[in-house]
Structure formats: C-alpha cells, structure tokens
Design a protein that fits this description.
The chain has 15 helices and 15 strands. It is an alpha/beta fold and 437 residues long. Strands 3-2-1-4-5-6-7-8 form an eight-stranded mixed sheet, with helices on both faces. The protein starts with a helix and ends in a 6-residue tail after the last strand. The protein binds ligand SAJ. The site of ligand SAJ has 20 residues, from helix 8.
Length: 437
C-alpha cells in the first residue's frame, strides 16, 4: 500500500520528534485519529511520563494522553530507531536564538542527522518548528538527499508551521487551521492528506516550504510589531495624562480595521520575542533591513526597565528609596493563566529590582519557584499581611484566579502593568500607560 493510502486508511506509522508544547499535542492528536505514534524526545523524564500516561503540557487533555498510551497507540523513546519503521516523521524541536540573537537551528540539524540512518524511500518528513524561510530546503533537504534519495520522488518533504497558543481554551491543535508547503506538488499532496486525517481545522496549501515558513513569521512579526506599537503609545500616554487602557477599549468598538493589542511589562514566551529575529537575520542575506522588527524588539526590550523606573518614581513620591523597599510581584509567568516562565518580563523586572537593592517576593499560583538573577525565590501565599507589608505590589502578570479586590484592599500601593485591576477604583492603583500629569 502506498503512503497516501496508508494515510487515508490511518494505517501509517508516525514518529513525532520533540515532545514539547507543540510535539506532544500533535502526537496525541495523531494517536487519537487512530495512527500508531512513537514520540522521540531527548529528555528521559518526558519519555517516562508519556509512557506512564502522565501529562506535562497544559494544552494536552490528560485523559486523551492516558487513553492513547494505554491503548498502545502512543509510546515514547529517546532512540531514533523507530524512524526506520515510520511512514511519517514530524519534527517539532526548539528553534531558539543564540546569545547574539542569531538563529540556532542546531536542534533541527541534530535530529535530522540522528534520523538519517533510518530514513528510507516512501517516507514523509515534515518540519513544524518556526524558522527562517529556506530552512526546510537548505538545512533538511540536502541531508536527506545525501542518502541518494530524491525528494519528491523517493521521499517527501514539507513544512507546516505550528500555531499553538498556549493556554488558549478555544483553539487547540485539533481545530486550528494548518498551513502546508511541500517541496514538490506530490510532497504537498501527501502532507495535506496527513493533516486532513488528524485535524478538524482547514488545511491551507501554499506553493513551497519557504512560503509556509514565511507565513508563520508574518503571523508572529504581526504580533511583535503591534504589541510594541501599543507599548510605545503607553509610554506617550503616561506623559500626556491619558489612560491607554480606556483608549484601547474605545478603539475596540470599531468593528472593522482594528485589532486590540495591550501594553505590558515586556514580551515573553519562546516565540514572539524570538521568531521575528529569524526573519531579520535571513533578510540580511538579501541586503535587506527589517526595520519594524528591530524597532519592535528595542521597544519591547525597554519595557522592563521602564516598569522599574516608574516603580522607583512611585516609591520616591512617597519618600521611599527602592533600596530596601519591599516589593511583591503578583504574577510572574510570561502571560496570564499559564505556568511558563520562558523569557518572562516579570523575571527580568525582578532581577532589575534585586540589582537595585529591593527586598523582593512574589506570588504566582502557577509558578511555585522562580530564579531571578542570582536569587531562587518561592511563591508566597497572597495573605493580607504580606500585601500590607509590601511597600508596593507590582502586578506583572494578570492571572485570572487572583483576587485583585483583596490585593488592592490590603496593599499600600499597586502598580498594575496588565490592567488586571480593571474596574476597581482606588487611589492606591497606578496603571502602566496611564498618566496622572
Ligand atoms: N502580549 C502583550 N500584549 C498583547 C499580547 C501579548 O504584551 O496584546 C505579550 C504576552 O503577555 C506574552 C507575549 O506578548 O508575554 C507573547 O504573547 P502571545 O499571546 O503571542 O502568546 P504566545 O507566545 O504564548 O503564543 C503565540 C501565539 N499566540 C497567539 O496567537 C495569541 C501565536 O502567536 C503563535 O502560535 C505562538 O506564539 C507560536 O508558537 O509562535
């Protein structure tokens, strides 16, 4: 039976390399669709947890994972040998930046190299990791063809960007439309058959892997630029004595031609602050400067410093020096209602405050422990006495399950960088992007 038929009959054997916030949901969806799935991950703890049916990714329904594992449709390993029996190999590994803000495709290269001894004719390889246009054809294709396999004839290769929005209860892997770009029309057709057999959402075909890689970067550049825009306007509003949150809520009433973004203490996560720099890096190869991306990065990177400076001003207005002041951070995850600290602006703010001699504590219901600078901190309960003891309460992430009425009631002063106290009237509250001048 050929690959297309195996996919249509859901009899294909699938390998998912990388069992993180993209790979594990995808592996579970493929197993739920009826495929036999093997997940490959270098982290032995993840391998063990999957094989025990224990979930560690918030966006995965734990029961779904447990079921497909107990039914024998999903198992995990650190070995690449299962690639030999696979009909489909999906790569979902990290694409970080190195310390020079240069793309680091070493994860992709490493897993492709480890797969090579097991790859053979008749297979489909799909890259899902967000990366610069050209990665699939410049990094993966040559390695596969070094085996003597012709892409588009012996073996098939495509790019299909992940669109996971961690914590989004409405759009999950299963019902989010998927973009696919194959190296050849045959590659595209086979990749399309794969995703149509596992996802409820639409499958959108583009003409090449580069178009699909660029599609994903457009989506994330769109976000970083618009978030930086509203961050910049929040700084202006502070000077002009205008409330940016009121202005955004008013702008939102426009039913067309506008989409709300909100100011914050900076930009966190492992995608939006990083992915756009994959494009700006590649653009230099074409003598092109992606000025919006660079400017957006500068503005967003400056937000933690701004929050610390405003904190110092607020304390100063009360005759309190930052050095020795007790500051309680409320919410440290990189965005609301998740448990992920990666690139979190709250961690950067905490580090800056500690460097300036503040006595720092934090509360985050989702994050029991956090390293800030050289300090290992533990989340403290949000008791009234802890709130009252803080010279200033700084809301850096607006988790839903925090009682902000109680925070305001017991705090001496609240600096709210997320408008989490929206609707609460109190002279104690100062909001980012809301000036008093
Ligand atoms: N943020 C703001 N203001 C906003 C929106 C976000 O300050 O108006 C901040 C968040 O607090 C967070 C950062 O930006 O620190 C990134 O937020 P995000 O909402 O973009 O969330 P991510 O990075 O977890 O997931 C995003 C996906 N988010 C959405 O589509 C809403 C999506 O862009 C990508 O599918 C995903 O990154 C990815 O993996 O690329």
């Amino acid at each position: 039976m050929d690959l297309l038929e195996k996919l249509r009959r859901k009899q294909a054997r699938i390998v998912v390399i990388g069992l993180g916030y993209v790979g594990l949901p995808l592996a579970v969806e493929k197993a739920r669709a009826g495929f036999h799935v093997v997940g490959i991950d270098s982290n032995p703890d993840r391998v063990e947890m999957v094989n025990e049916g224990c979930n560690y990714i918030g966006d995965v329904v734990s029961e779904d994972l447990a079921t497909v594992v107990s039914d024998g449709r999903l198992r995990a390993t650190s070995s690449f040998e299962p690639v030999a029996e696979a009909d489909v190999v999906t790569i979902c590994v990290p694409t970080p930046l190195d310390r020079h803000k240069q793309p680091d495709t070493s994860y992709i290269e490493r897993v492709v190299e480890a797969s090579l001894p097991h790859l053979h004719a008749g297979q489909l390889v799909v890259l899902e990791s967000t990366t610069y246009p050209g990665t699939t054809e410049e990094v993966i294709r040559p390695r596969i063809e070094s085996l003597g396999l012709k892409v588009g004839e012996d073996i098939f290769l495509a790019f299909s960007p992940e669109r996971v929005d961690p914590g989004n209860a409405r759009y999950r892997t299963r019902n989010t439309p998927k973009v696919i770009g194959g190296v050849t029309p045959q590659c595209t057709e086979i990749a399309k058959a794969l995703y149509e057999s596992i996802l409820e959402g639409d499958v959108c075909v583009v003409s090449s892997p580069r178009a699909a890689e660029m599609t994903k970067l457009l989506e994330n550049v769109f976000r970083i630029v618009n978030i930086s825009l509203v961050n910049e306007l929040s700084l202006l509003c502070e000077r002009m004595g205008i409330d940016i949150w009121e202005v955004i809520d008013a702008a939102k009433t426009k039913p067309f031609g506008y989409m709300p973004f909100y100011p914050g203490p900076g930009l966190g996560g492992h995608c939006i602050p990083l992915d756009p720099f994959y494009l700006s890096w590649k653009a230099k190869e074409y003598g092109f400067s992606t000025r919006f991306i660079e400017l957006a990065g500068q503005i967003n990177d400056g937000m933690p410093e701004h929050v610390v400076e405003r904190t110092m001003e607020l304390l100063n207005d009360r005759g309190i020096a930052l050095r020795g002041a007790s500051i309680l951070l409320v919410g440290v995850a990189y965005k609301k209602d998740i448990d992920d600290l990666r690139e979190s602006p709250a961690v950067k703010i905490g580090d800056l405050l500690l460097q300036r001699g503040a006595l720092l504590s934090y509360h985050d219901p989702n994050i029991p422990g956090a390293r800030m600078g050289t300090h290992e901190l533990r989340s403290i309960p949000l008791h009234p006495d802890a709130l009252a003891a803080a010279d200033l309460v700084l809301i850096t992430t607006g988790h839903s399950d925090v009682d902000y009425e109680a925070v305001v009631r017991h705090a001496q002063q609240v600096f709210d960088t997320r408008n989490a106290t929206q609707g609460i009237q109190s002279p104690k509250i100062v909001r980012l992007g809301s000036g008093t001048k």
